[in-house]
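Entry 0007
Protein: PX domain-containing protein
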Amino acid sequence: IFPVFSKAPNPEVYLLSKHLPKQTDRLPIYMGEVGPVWLYPQSQLDCVVADPKKGSKMYGLKSYIEYQITPNSTNRPVNHRYKHFDWLYERLTEKFGCALPIPSLPDKQVTGRFEDEFIKMRMERLQAWMSRMCRHPVVSNSDVFQLFLTYKDEKDWKEGKRKAEKDETAGVMIFSYMDPEVPDLEPTEVEQRYETYSRFTRSMDDGVKDLHSVSHLHWKRCTGPLQKEYRHIGKALQNLSSVFNTSGYQGEATLTEALMTTGKIYEEIAEIVAGQPKKDLHYLMETNNEYKGLLGCFPDIIGVQKAAIEKVKDADRLVAMNKIAPQDKHNMAKNLSTMSYAFQAEMNHFHSNRIYDYNRVMQFYLQEQVKFYETIAEKLKQALSQYTNL
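Output (structure tokens):
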């Protein structure tokens, strides 16, 4: 009644499994202050994506950009093209996608791939993606991720790729490596927890999309209508100054000069307003976009977990029909508990990262906003100082 091994997210395959990997390969889950947590390394892995260089092959017919990635574990740089990042993403999704959110890479682009602005933006997004993967204790310690960061030469890279592509510990079978050092959960308790997580991830997805939409409109306003309004005010004040200058009245000069200076300052403010989103809103939107990608993974992960709950609920009927043995039913409940602990550990990882990321980016955003308004205030004070008290 149960299908043979498949890499598709079919929880039955894992639920009935009895195989346990070697102790060295296990992925322990501990009970921490916030609940189940992954085992975190003593020193945090990180890497720097830098130094993009244009390369070519097929006698120059095919061009590409290659990035240098330097992990802090070796301080030895390795080179990768975008298609290598894409390969890594596919391997990680295949291996961990049933249990962990693996966000998509920055989009591929057909035209303008070699323009400086695009290369800079892609490198920034690849850096953010790699940093997020480095921060995950399960992903960062996996063989395929370590291969990507530390391969020695072309031969080592190709051999590692072949091995990774044949990895059978993928899909739901990744749960067989997870080892919760905690008591088993009851299926009813498991189900309640999923409802809570499901509601939160859906609500956060809505909130993230709303902030993205509002931020996008604000950026357009700063570089469009708002910039034009400040320019128009500046031009109108300068025009008024020119009109006043034609009066022939002796005491005119101080006011006309003040109006002209104020008009020019408003034109300067127009450019400051238009340039500000790149300095602060950009980083808030990028963080928000990363979370949009992460949250997009959760429906599938929760779907696998809910399918497993339904299978376990059906175990009594299958035992009664002699389709599975009572011991199989016990194994299914135990394995469902492991899946639940893995998901709770992942949600706790997600929440701690979310709090850190949004706290950090909002601090940066507000610091830059304060500088922005202080700059405008200084400009307005400069304009105000041109006028005499009558």
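Curator remark: The chain has a mean pLDDT of 90. The longest helix spans residues 326-384.
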